[in-house]
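[Discussion] Sanity-checking designs against the backbone

I'm trying to build intuition for which residues belong where. Below is a structure token string of 242 positions. I'd appreciate it if someone posts a full sequence so I can compare it with mine line by line.
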């Protein structure tokens, strides 16, 4: 009921950094659409997502992704991939063509996580939450392209992160940034945001490739790293954020 006339969600911003937060709104609407009790509610949420994505497609041509939007572009593309899986009556042919254009633009404007997780030396950067979100990038691009190279790259990044920064909890060190030089020392840590984003990434990777190693990793993190980020002498107030 509050969506802008052009489909934009939220305040009327228009810069390259303003896209990434909308991915959270889009993915929430998608969850609602999949679980809504009535067809009308599903249709309403689905159309809200579609209208936003078409608005975004028009915007990224003039205002490309920058900063964290560029580092989290795969989360935006995850919503596009979902919409492209909807049947023809939901998405018209012209709209589907624009969604593919948006997917191509997001791939081009998102930082190169595929190289980063091999070399750790490009502009993707060491921010721990961005890296946790970036873990899913190869899975997202695979769902849009079917490029089998991305399957291998998705698996190798888990190994590379473990070798450089891995913790027994299943997470990696990154108490704000990935440590430099790399260390697996447990005196470092990882924050709550990184934990839940890694759980989401590994769940996405499992749902894309069906590789049980990703499901095992999400579960390992959920039962070990996640409770620690909520712990405290009182319990549940997140005093042990790292």
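Best answer:
Here's mine. Compare freely.
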């Amino acid at each position: 009921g509050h969506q802008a006339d052009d489909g934009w969600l939220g305040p009327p911003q228009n810069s390259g950094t303003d896209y990434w937060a909308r991915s959270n709104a889009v993915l929430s609407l998608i969850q609602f659409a999949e679980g809504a009790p009535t067809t009308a509610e599903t249709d309403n949420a689905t159309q809200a997502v579609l209208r936003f994505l078409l608005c975004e497609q028009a915007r990224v041509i003039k205002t490309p992704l920058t900063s964290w939007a560029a580092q989290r572009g795969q989360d935006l593309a995850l919503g596009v991939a979902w919409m492209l899986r909807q049947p023809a009556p939901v998405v018209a042919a012209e709209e589907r063509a624009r969604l593919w254009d948006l997917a191509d633009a997001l791939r081009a404007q998102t930082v190169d996580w595929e190289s980063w997780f091999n070399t750790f030396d490009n502009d993707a950067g060491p921010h721990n939450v961005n890296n946790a979100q970036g873990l899913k990038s190869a899975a997202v691009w695979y769902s849009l392209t079917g490029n089998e190279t991305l399957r291998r790259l998705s698996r190798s990044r888990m190994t590379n992160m473990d070798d450089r920064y891995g913790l027994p909890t299943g997470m990696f060190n990154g108490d704000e940034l990935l440590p430099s030089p790399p260390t697996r020392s447990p005196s470092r840590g990882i924050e709550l945001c990184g934990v839940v984003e890694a759980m989401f990434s590994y769940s996405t990777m499992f749902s894309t490739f069906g590789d049980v190693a990703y499901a095992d990793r999400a579960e390992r993190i959920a039962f070990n790293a996640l409770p620690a980020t909520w712990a405290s002498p009182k319990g549940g107030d997140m005093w042990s954020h790292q």
